[in-house]
Amino acid sequence: MPSATVWEFRAITATDRSTAQNAPWSRMAMTDVSTQAWRGGVDVDAWQAIGPGGPAEVGELVADLILAPEDDPMADEPEVAAWIGLHRHDASRAAEPGGGAPTDMPLDAPSHAFCKIEEAIAWAQLPMEAGQCAVELGAAPGGAVLALARRGLDVVAVDLGDLAAQVLASPGVTHLAKKVGSLGRADLPARVDWLLVDMNLAPQVVLHEIAHLLPGLVPTLRGAVFTLKLPDWAVVDELPRLVAQIAAFGLPDVRLRHLPSNRREVCCVARPAR
Ligand SMILES: C[S@@+](CC[C@H](N)C(=O)[O-])C[C@H]1O[C@@H](n2cnc3c(N)ncnc32)[C@H](O)[C@@H]1O
């Protein structure tokens, strides 16, 4: 019985993590585990005994375990060493442990953004299909562009930086060497199904930079995938405001997740109302 094992763990927990419960990206009931309790010995074997692992099926009870990173300079002696929780799996959640799909980065992928977009597609079940058109703003050197081109999409890669040669040579890839600020709607194909935004700027700046393009893109968009950088941790508190801003572009179905390949950033998928 998975639930029995998890409730035993609640006995060693400290305070309810209300901020996590309220955060838009987490509807799980999470509970802090103090560092002291963690060092005192949490029986991880019991967690592993919960089940065989692998993707969760709808309706299954899933144990959540988040560990504070050991190499975090802020975490020499963290108050919280781990968060544990429990949720029942449904179609809106990631089925794979860790929240992504196991993605092998091909040897010729020029950046780990290849894995980021594959994980986003798997997590949010994005119906990206051959023949569709995608635009990526902040596309060089082209990991995500390569992933989409390999799926048979036509991809317009917008970046002043160069695309890797193998990406540029992929069928369906077009490079627009422009800054987003000087890009007009007429520079892009008439029908754009997917928008990817992966510019290495603070998210508030990114949303300001792309705002002029969105009204012309949204009518045909099936969805957008933003990588929101977290240049400082204060941006985490800004996430609800950024989500509201993205929704106001006309993409009200917004979800956030830190994917396995995300570093100091989160993935934001925004879709038109269903
Ligand atoms: C994290 S990299 C993108 C990685 C890329 N998505 C991939 O799959 O390899 C960020 C990129 O954003 C681009 N960038 C930053 N500001 C930009 C702007 N205003 N217009 C266009 N590109 C921009 C940078 O040149 C840089 O190549």
Tell me the quaternary state: single chain
The coarse overall form would be: globular
Question: Looking at CATH, which topology of the largest domain would you report?
Answer: Rossmann fold
The CATH superfamily name of the largest domain is Vaccinia Virus protein VP39
The computed structural class is: alpha/beta
Radius of gyration: 20 Å
- DSSP E strands, number: 10
- Summed up, the domain count is 2
**Considering DSSP H and I runs of 4 or more, what fraction of the residues is helical?**
25-40%
- Main sheet properties: 7 strands, mixed
Low-confidence stretches: 1-29
Small molecules (ligands, ions, cofactors) in the structure? S-adenosylmethionine
Strand order of the largest sheet: 6-5-4-7-8-10-9
Give the integer mean of the pLDDT values.
81
Look at the structure and give the CATH class of the largest domain.
Alpha Beta
Beta strand %: 15-25%
**N-to-C terminal Cα separation, in Å?**
36 Å
Q: At CATH's second level, what is the architecture of the largest domain? A: 3-Layer(aba) Sandwich
Summarize the structure in words:
The protein is α/β, with parallel strands linked by helices. It folds into two domains: 2-93, no CATH class; 98-271, Vaccinia Virus protein VP39 (Rossmann fold). 27% of the residues lie in helices and 22% in strands. Helix 5 (113-124) crosses helix 6. The protein is globular.
Q: What layout of secondary structure does this protein have?
A:
Layout: H1 2-10, H2 18-22, E1 29-34, H3 35-39, H4 44-48, E2 61-67, E3 80-88, H5 113-124, E4 133-137, H6 143-150, E5 154-158, H7 165-168, E6 173-176, E7 194-197, H8 203-210, H9 214-217, E8 223-229, H10 234-248, E9 253-257, E10 265-271
Parallel strand pairs: 4-5, 4-7, 5-6, 7-8
Antiparallel strand pairs: 1-3, 2-3, 8-10, 9-10
Helix pairs in contact: 5-6
S-adenosylmethionine binds near residues 159, 181, 198, 200 and 209.
